[in-house]
Write a structure and sequence with these properties.
Blueprint: H1 28-41, H2 46-56, H3 68-76, H4 96-101, E1 104-106, E2 112-114, E3 121-123, E4 126-128, H5 130-139, E5 148-149, E6 161-162, H6 164-169, H7 176-184, H8 191-207
Helix pairs in contact: 7-8
This protein binds iron/sulfur cluster (SF4) and zinc ion (ZN) (2 copies).
One zinc ion binds next to helix 7 and helix 8.
């Protein structure tokens, strides 16, 4: 009769058994514990092992990715034996860009979605608005004034974001944006700009929009 014991398929079969019995839970033992857990993480019979440890209650050692204190804690919480292991915790991001990139997903057609769980991006104890960070990373500077999207979606692609400066940079004289640029820069608007502004005002009164007819 063929044995189908799950132990035959255990990932720890070829590992040093001592690895799974750390003599402590602090300092260098933490590293050992993590190494042992890594073996369990790729173990095909983890669920069997967890069930076994749950029923047998070994007083020591790492089984199914849990140390004895962790098993005890789980019991107190009345949680069932684990059948999978939680993903490896990621190290903290070291740059704002890294923190941002962890929470975005490209849509595949040029847009970028924010997948962060909150509306804030926390980095090194500070909170940022994701839109501001998206702009900053893409344009190399903080946005001035309101950030707007040019694609009309809840998008975080830097090239779809404009701020005040970008919107008015291309504001040529003889246009209403040009007029607004003068004001923003503390200048007296030039004649073509004043004219354009008056025209736009008149259009607004007549048609309800400042846009010139196409
Ligand atoms: S889960 Fe870990 S301890 Fe259990 S059999 Fe697999 S490798 Fe060994
Ligand atoms: Zn977009
Ligand atoms: Zn002008």
């Amino acid at each position: 009769m063929r044995t189908t014991d799950w132990r035959d398929r255990a990932a720890c079969r070829y590992e040093d058994p001592d690895l799974f019995f750390p003599a402590g839970t602090t300092g260098t033992f933490l590293l050992q514990i993590e190494q042992a857990k890594d073996v369990c993480r790729r173990c095909p019979v983890l669920a069997h092992c967890a069930q076994w440890a749950w029923e047998t209650r070994p007083s020591d050692g790492i089984f199914a990715g849990l140390t004895e204190p962790e098993r005890r804690y789980r019991r107190r919480q009345k949680r069932p034996a684990p059948s999978t292991m939680p993903p490896v915790p990621q190290p903290k991001p070291t740059t704002l860009a890294e923190a941002f990139t962890r929470h975005i997903t490209p849509t595949g057609d040029g847009h970028v979605l924010w997948t962060g769980s909150s509306r804030q991006l926390k980095f090194q104890g500070k909170a940022y608005t994701p839109l501001r960070v998206a702009f900053l990373l893409g344009h190399g500077r903080d946005p001035e004034g309101l950030v707007r999207r040019t694609c009309g979606r809840a998008c975080f692609a830097a090239e779809h974001l404009t701020d005040w400066r970008l919107r008015y940079e291309g504001a040529h004289c003889g246009t209403r944006p040009g007029y607004q640029r003068h004001l923003r820069d503390g200048e007296t608007p030039c004649e073509p700009c004043r004219q354009a502004n008056t025209d736009a005002d008149n259009r607004l009164r007549r048609t309800g929009t400042t846009r010139a007819a196409a």
